[in-house]
Amino acid sequence: MDDGRRYSALTKLGFGALAFNSVVALYNSWGGAGSAAFVLAADAALVLLFLCLREFERTRGGAARDRNIIKAAVWALATLLTAMFASRVAPLMPPVIGTAVWIVAVATVAGGFWAFFLN
């Protein structure tokens, strides 16, 4: 990534795997608008998270305000993904385990907030 616009082969491979997995998931959820929307929203959030992290790396040594805005975006996207996946996994589990899934999700979000903004 010399000029900041090129992506490594590993990044391209990761996006290729994400695209392939998304196409398979969309095919398997054909007819289920909720499942298709979930796949598309999760993909969009993952791509935005990647772009935010890349921008965060680029602003190393930059203005603190810019870095804080990017940190907030990263935390918000990570929180969104955590809540999305917990909302899909918890109902499939027995009630006690489903509650544990949500407790772990909330602890993860709170820990991320503490690490990003309070530490």
UniProtKB/TrEMBL annotation:
This is Uncharacterized protein. Keywords: Membrane, Transmembrane, Transmembrane helix. The lineage of its organism: Eukaryota, Viridiplantae, Streptophyta, Embryophyta, Tracheophyta. InterPro entries: DUF6490 (IPR045501). The chain crosses the membrane at residues 7-27, 33-51, 72-90, 96-118.
